[in-house]
Amino acid sequence: MIQTLLIHAEAPPKPPQGAPCNGCGICCAAARCPVAWLFLPRGSGACAALEWDGSARRYRCGMVAQPAHYLRWLPRRWEGRAARWFAYRIAAGRGCDFGAVEVAGD
Ligand code: SF4
Ligand code: SF4
Question: Does the structure show a pLDDT above 90 at 1?
Protein backbone atom coordinates (compact mmCIF):
# COMPACT_ATOMS: atom_id res chain seq x y z
CA MET A 1 0.00 0.00 0.00
CA ILE A 2 1.25 3.47 -0.83
CA GLN A 3 0.68 6.04 1.91
CA THR A 4 1.78 9.67 1.95
CA LEU A 5 3.22 10.76 5.31
CA LEU A 6 4.11 14.32 6.27
CA ILE A 7 7.30 14.20 8.33
CA HIS A 8 9.43 17.09 9.59
CA ALA A 9 12.42 17.70 7.33
CA GLU A 10 14.83 17.43 10.29
CA ALA A 11 13.37 14.16 11.59
CA PRO A 12 15.89 11.31 11.76
CA PRO A 13 15.52 8.41 9.31
CA LYS A 14 13.63 5.39 10.55
CA PRO A 15 15.97 2.83 12.13
CA PRO A 16 15.61 -0.93 11.57
CA GLN A 17 12.90 -2.73 13.52
CA GLY A 18 14.24 -3.69 16.95
CA ALA A 19 16.80 -0.88 17.09
CA PRO A 20 16.40 1.87 19.71
CA CYS A 21 13.61 4.31 18.89
CA ASN A 22 15.02 7.57 17.57
CA GLY A 23 11.75 9.48 17.41
CA CYS A 24 11.49 9.46 13.63
CA GLY A 25 7.69 9.62 13.97
CA ILE A 26 6.97 7.31 11.05
CA CYS A 27 4.87 4.85 13.05
CA CYS A 28 2.56 7.46 14.57
CA ALA A 29 2.22 9.30 11.28
CA ALA A 30 1.26 6.07 9.53
CA ALA A 31 -1.09 4.47 12.05
CA ARG A 32 -2.62 5.14 15.41
CA CYS A 33 -1.64 2.98 18.38
CA PRO A 34 -4.20 1.48 20.81
CA VAL A 35 -3.74 4.41 23.19
CA ALA A 36 -4.69 6.82 20.43
CA TRP A 37 -7.65 4.69 19.39
CA LEU A 38 -8.97 4.63 22.93
CA PHE A 39 -8.32 8.17 24.10
CA LEU A 40 -7.94 10.57 21.19
CA PRO A 41 -10.43 11.89 18.66
CA ARG A 42 -10.28 10.22 15.29
CA GLY A 43 -9.14 12.10 12.25
CA SER A 44 -7.19 11.63 9.10
CA GLY A 45 -3.44 11.84 9.02
CA ALA A 46 -0.95 11.54 11.86
CA CYS A 47 -1.96 10.90 15.45
CA ALA A 48 -3.13 14.10 17.15
CA ALA A 49 -0.66 13.53 19.99
CA LEU A 50 2.41 13.23 17.76
CA GLU A 51 4.59 16.19 18.77
CA TRP A 52 7.70 17.55 17.12
CA ASP A 53 10.38 18.39 19.71
CA GLY A 54 12.45 21.04 17.97
CA SER A 55 15.22 21.14 20.57
CA ALA A 56 15.74 17.37 20.44
CA ARG A 57 14.99 17.21 16.70
CA ARG A 58 12.77 14.22 17.12
CA TYR A 59 9.14 13.38 17.58
CA ARG A 60 7.67 12.44 20.91
CA CYS A 61 4.38 11.03 22.14
CA GLY A 62 2.28 13.78 23.66
CA MET A 63 0.31 11.23 25.67
CA VAL A 64 3.53 10.55 27.56
CA ALA A 65 4.98 14.07 27.52
CA GLN A 66 1.86 15.97 28.59
CA PRO A 67 -1.24 13.75 28.77
CA ALA A 68 -3.38 16.40 30.50
CA HIS A 69 -3.01 18.58 27.42
CA TYR A 70 -4.88 15.96 25.38
CA LEU A 71 -7.14 14.62 28.11
CA ARG A 72 -8.80 17.72 29.49
CA TRP A 73 -10.63 15.66 32.08
CA LEU A 74 -7.39 14.34 33.57
CA PRO A 75 -6.56 15.99 36.93
CA ARG A 76 -3.06 17.48 36.94
CA ARG A 77 -2.16 15.45 40.02
CA TRP A 78 -2.69 12.27 38.03
CA GLU A 79 -0.65 13.37 35.03
CA GLY A 80 2.59 11.70 36.11
CA ARG A 81 0.86 8.40 36.75
CA ALA A 82 -1.01 8.61 33.44
CA ALA A 83 2.21 9.41 31.57
CA ARG A 84 3.92 6.34 33.03
CA TRP A 85 0.95 4.15 32.14
CA PHE A 86 0.83 5.44 28.58
CA ALA A 87 4.60 4.96 28.24
CA TYR A 88 4.12 1.35 29.32
CA ARG A 89 1.19 0.85 26.95
CA ILE A 90 3.08 2.16 23.92
CA ALA A 91 6.17 0.12 24.90
CA ALA A 92 8.32 3.25 25.14
CA GLY A 93 11.99 2.47 25.49
CA ARG A 94 11.66 -1.06 24.11
CA GLY A 95 12.94 -0.33 20.64
CA CYS A 96 11.34 0.29 17.29
CA ASP A 97 8.37 -2.02 16.80
CA PHE A 98 7.35 -0.70 13.40
CA GLY A 99 8.07 -2.72 10.29
CA ALA A 100 10.08 -1.78 7.28
CA VAL A 101 8.93 1.09 5.10
CA GLU A 102 10.19 2.52 1.88
CA VAL A 103 10.52 6.26 2.11
CA ALA A 104 10.53 8.51 -0.91
CA GLY A 105 11.54 12.12 -0.41
CA ASP A 106 11.42 15.05 -2.79
S1 SF4 B 1 9.05 3.27 17.12
FE2 SF4 B 1 10.28 3.19 15.23
S3 SF4 B 1 9.01 4.17 13.65
FE4 SF4 B 1 8.17 4.76 15.67
S5 SF4 B 1 9.17 6.72 16.21
FE6 SF4 B 1 10.40 5.07 17.13
S7 SF4 B 1 11.98 4.61 15.59
FE8 SF4 B 1 10.36 5.75 14.53
S1 SF4 C 1 -0.65 8.08 21.23
FE2 SF4 C 1 1.54 8.46 21.12
S3 SF4 C 1 2.43 6.48 20.53
FE4 SF4 C 1 0.23 6.39 20.07
S5 SF4 C 1 0.06 6.97 17.90
FE6 SF4 C 1 -0.21 8.84 19.15
S7 SF4 C 1 1.83 9.79 19.32
FE8 SF4 C 1 2.08 7.64 18.64
Answer: no
Instruction: Domain count for the chain, please give it.
Output: 1
Which of the ligands is closest to the CA of residue 63?
2
Are the beta carbons of 59 and 49 closer than 8 angstroms?
Answer: no
Q: What is the pLDDT of residues 73-88, one digit of tens each?
A: 999 999 999 999 999 9
Q: Look at residue 4 and tell me if it is in a domain.
A: no
* 25 CA closest ligand 1 atom index: 5
Residue 46 CA, ligand 1 centroid: distance in Å: 13
C-alpha of residue 78 to centroid of ligand 2, in Å: 19
Whether the model clears a pTM of 0.85, i.e. scores above it, the answer is yes
Enclosing H/E stretch for 63: helix 62-65
**Residue range(s) defining the domain that contains residue 53:** 26-89
